[in-house]
Amino acid sequence: MKKIYILCLVIIAVAFFQCTKRNTKSTSQFAFTFTKEMSDQAQDGRLLLILANDGKSEPRFQVNDGLGAQLIFGVDVEGLQPGQELIINNENAFGFPFRYLKDIPPGDYYVQGLINRYETYKLKTGHTVKLPPDQGEGQQWNRKPGNFYSKPFRITIDSAKSETIKVVLDQKIAPIEAPKDSKYIRHIKIESKMLTAFYGKPTFLGAHVLVPEGFEEHPEAKYPLMVFHGHFPEDFGGFSTEPPPADMDTMDYIARFNIYGYKKFEKQEAYHFYKQWTGKNFPRFLVIEIQHANPYYDDSYAVNSANIGPYGDAIMYELIPEIERKFRGIGQGWARFTYGGSTGGWEALAVQMFYPDEFNGCFAACPDPVDFRAYSLVDIYKQKNAYWYDSKFKKLPIPAHRNYLGQIQSTMQESNHLELALGTKSRSGQQWDIWEAVYSPQGEDGYPKRIFDKETGDIDSTVAQYWKEHYDLRYILERDWKTLGPKLQGKIHIYCGDMDNYYLNNAVYLMEGFLKTTDSPFYKGEVDYGDRAEHCWNGDHDNPNYVSRLRYNTMYLPKILKRISESAPKGADVKSWRY
Predict the structure, then answer these.
(1) Less packed terminus of the chain by CB within 10 Å, N or C?
(2) CATH domain 26-172 topology
(3) Over the stretch 542-573, which tens digit does the pLDDT of each residue have?
(4) What CATH class has 185-239+280-370+480-567?
(5) Are 496 and 365 in contact (CB under 8 A)?
(6) How far apart are the first and last CA of the chain?
(7) Domain boundaries in the chain?
(8) Contact 416, 385 (CB under 8 A)
(9) Strands 71-80 and 86-88
């Protein structure tokens, strides 16, 4: 009996040992260095370790917060010398979707390292901050010229093995060549005095300008201006003087739209726009896409901000006047219109509100949250936490992204923890951080004050109140309607799918609720919804989203022409541009 008892103890001990061995956490760490060939100067920045489970592309191009998320860990570095090793381990790295390196499951991975390099800015406010400057790529850390990175290599993570894996940053992302002028597409770049004063170093604004057919042949004509807001444009998009090649491959698949051959379709639409643009009866005007990438994001949101700087005024009073001077714009508010989707939708509505006399209409498609009671699915004024629903016994995460059937791909916590891996102090260059950088007051350290704790999701009510007074578009309209209403009557047009992927329709409902109650005057605009339409529905009930998203520059034209005919002041030039 005693022998049986001892045997049982041995069996249990062996089983326990095997189980413990299988569950042992990885103790591997990574030693980063950059070579003197990259730079002989010390570097500041965000050091990133990326691991992907396949080699379909470089790991740096596989980072996202969806169901296909790969692994990323980040560490802030200051004064890292060439050849000096910096260890990334459990103690200093913040990771996504696993918080710690020790949680990486055993297996084979493709590994890549990268440093998103920072520069030092001495701001007009007196603060000194370290930020990643845009280098002409639109604030994309994985494509930013000058960033150092390693070639991908394959490793095996073994939970029973402790090792230090060396990652050498011996590659540098090449500069981007500036686009060249053509007959219809021109480019302009100016140094902004306002922004240079704010950042303490030369800061530039640019734009791609689509000029009308007959621009050179009609030097007497002056043109209305259409401002197409959106994310950073490398060049003017969706316009081509050449049709797609007949033999162009059509086997590319776009999961978002569930169709094949979309690249050829895009090129066909771009050529179709050219044919319309140069057609005999097409109205002649200027269309611009603005380049206003900054150290926090691929664009500035086109408003003045405590952290981003006076981009609203710089665009309105420095860039646009120079464009209208150089390309013969009419240069008056009745002849300017603005439109865009998503970020561009919010910008279109915001600049119309903040510069009400300078524009004659905005067309805001699927705008970013226009009412912070619906900051996606978070009410920043009433809720205490942005990651979890309020419940005494149940912990339910708040979603951040869905498809048109409501199926969830990511949560608020996941999206924000990815950003925290990419950068601290609102420096990830991603969506939630740029909202914070634009809307928040400046903190004592010179960086944006957090609207909520990035790790826990706890909301700061004092920051929320600042957001409300300065950037909650519905609240500002309601607060100031007595003075804003007469200037905005007939100018506000908002469109959103009722299954927007980021729940942006919820804020539009709240905005519509206010606009319908307006009087003295009634807003006389438009709010419309697409049935089961995802991001970024823009008001087209006749075509699917994959078509209408390519037609911004023509779809609002009839409403713009009608508005001009109804509102142009007596004696205004409404003919020289209608040749």
Answers:
(1) N
(2) Immunoglobulin-like (2.60.40)
(3) 999 899 999 999 999 999 999 999 999 999 99
(4) alpha beta
(5) yes
(6) 107
(7) 26-172, 185-239+280-370+480-567, 373-469
(8) no
(9) unpaired
